[in-house]
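Ticket #4471: structure export looks truncated?
Reporter: QA, pipeline team
Priority: medium

Steps to reproduce: submit the single chain below to the structure queue and open the exported record.
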Amino acid sequence: MHSRIRFIEAVRRRRTTVADAAATFGISRKTAYKWLARHDSGEPGALKDRSRRPHEHPQAVDPRIAEMILEIRREQPLFGPRKLIVVAGRRHPSVELPSESTVARILRREGLVPPRRPGRCRAVRSAFAPLGDAAAPNDIWTADYMGRFTMRGGGSCNVLTVQDAHSRKLLAAAGHARADAESAKREFLALFRRSGLPARIHTDNGGPFASNGLGRLSALSVWWMRQDIEVTRSRPGHPEDNPRHERMHRDLRAKSARPPEHGLAAQQRRLDESARWMNDERPHDALGGRMPSEAYAPSTREYVERPKAFDYPDWWEKRRIQSNGHMKLRGEYIFVGRALEDEYVALEEVDDDVWRLIYRRTLLAMLVRRGKRLVTLSPPTDDEEPDSAETE
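Actual output as written to the record:
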């Protein structure tokens, strides 16, 4: 700034010509005349540096396209940039849409992206280690209760959710006054008759899906197994073993329970509408932008009212579980679990006084004689399920 003022004074006071002054101050004649013109304009701050930002941006997003993105975001406030682009492409297939990062900048500019809360860095476990991979619809269903919340006017709502692991379709979102086995069984019965049977159901270790008996079997899980459905669970205290279901719960709660409705009937209507939105309107990244309903098909396996008894191998010892949950072996009573009342389990002797206790294809425990007592041990973690038992 000091050099520019000295240059202006040298020229205006006729001390030198413009060409000589430009050479003295080390600037071109074009720059010299530019500074003289700015000084003579009399504008405040005329000699200060001006922004070099171009007046027009050739790659700027058309305001009409930005407004179209914002309109979809206002309709679907839970959609991120990827889903907004998918929906915008479906509605306006002939429009060239901006990139995901550009849409994110538009949302940030409009204040539609909440700031991230700082958190601790955590190790990430494989999402497929405990759950496994679902190659087709109905390979794996995941089930859980979303968690109790209080409705307006009082009263509790416990939401049972069932999701297909392959298509991510929310098969059920049912609000119950209590999270008990009777309510869950009634919902699953309707779901089995509507969508058929899955190959496997994955849950956590809470009720009514699990109990304190051997294998943590509950009456509900035994009922599933009698339909020849495999039952697996997440590790206790590890919700990250079923991350898809936990993530779905977060969106479902935001869509259906904030704020809650007045009464269970109104809350169920809200849940039904939220499930329809998640299945039919929200595209899913893992499905290539398709909706879950477009990737799902009902199972060809039908529910059987009276399933056949399981046929264990002839060389295994069979025991019927009594009403108090016990069975008898070598003169001793062993508690297996009330959930298996009147069911038959099998004992495979693998060594002297060592047995594998099996229900259908599931290894429940190892029985070992120590001195005069039979001791129940948890099965080895690397032991696979028995494959020698076959159904009829």
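Status: closed, not a bug. The export was complete when the record was re-opened. Leaving a note from the reviewer for reference: Residues 264-280 form the longest helix (17 residues).
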